[in-house]
């Protein structure tokens, strides 16, 4: 079997499928590859680590039908280096020949029969506008944990509300909540926990969110179908923490600051503390005169910068992890940011102009 395809379209399709390929294939070496399936007029590329599966279809001149598995990393690197406008791939019993202009390569294939059977779309489809979903995922997904030892926190809670759907993620240091009014993604009263990695890839695929998304919710998997691309993520089993009890009902202190000047000052002041998660926290001293940022790192030094801001409340100094603080400001995506606090030991809430988004941040205890 053989196919011929535009190089750019082929490279994009293979690169997208590759994002789901297992980084550590373990007992299934075949998962280090991309499954290539030829049908009339198109080629489908599938990558999977069994938790996340991405299928991408591209039009091609096809001779014959069937499947094989090609080593993913080699294929991605090859397509990135060749300069010909078209690429021809001929797949035999145990090897594939790749031709692009004057370039020739013969690579071994893996048996398609060893590639695990992957979940198919199940359940009725729900169509969701891509724009609001992409923006909600952009705001919430970064707050999910990347620690596999706490699998529940590596997911994003998707739950139905009276107005639409709510997305929630936390790594226990911060909490992001985004309501999507008018988005009917789940039946009333239902909630699911979806891996943040898969939703992050969905957000990347949606880009500006111009296209609608078909959503198929099954008992163990959820599938998102876009034009030419399908992403399937395994649902996480378990009970998400009761995040609502973390959000205080009111805050006596409210700081309002211009976003760009605040971000610039945080980035400058935090340099003294380094870039790791455990680096020196950044202190926010808030009073009637405005805001002063400071950071102190033992054996390194200290830095300060006042920032013009409006403050309503009692004088207070609160410290945060600077990276988590900047993540919240970026997620809010607003020209003006408000930070509401109670005292130096209780969670603070950061908001932008959009009332549907909330970012709760745990303070760092300081002397």
Question: How would you characterize the overall build of this protein?
Answer:
With about 375 residues, the chain is α+β, with helices and mostly antiparallel strands. The chain folds into three domains: about 1-115, DNA Polymerase III, subunit A, domain 2 (DNA Polymerase III, Chain A, domain 2, Roll), CATH 3.10.150.10; about 125-245, DNA Polymerase III, subunit A, domain 2 (DNA Polymerase III, Chain A, domain 2, Roll); about 245-360, DNA Polymerase III, subunit A, domain 2 (DNA Polymerase III, Chain A, domain 2, Roll). The protein contains six helices and 26 strands. It has helices at about 5-20, 70-80, 130-140, 195-205, 260-270, 320-330, and strands at about 1-5, 35-40, 40-50, 50-60, 60-65, 65-70, 85-90, 95-100, 105-110, 125-130, 155-160, 165-170, 175-180, 190-195, 215, 220-225, 230-235, 255-260, 280-285, 290-295, 300-305, 310, 315-320, 335-340, 350, 355-360. The chain has a 13-stranded antiparallel β-sheet with strand order 5-1-7-8-9-6-2-3-4-17-16-15-10, with helices on one face. A nine-stranded antiparallel β-sheet has the order 14-11-12-13-26-25-24-18-22. The protein has a four-stranded antiparallel β-sheet with strand order 21-20-19-23. Strand 15 and strand 16 form a beta hairpin. Helix 3 packs across helix 4. The protein starts with a strand and ends in a 6-residue tail after the last strand.
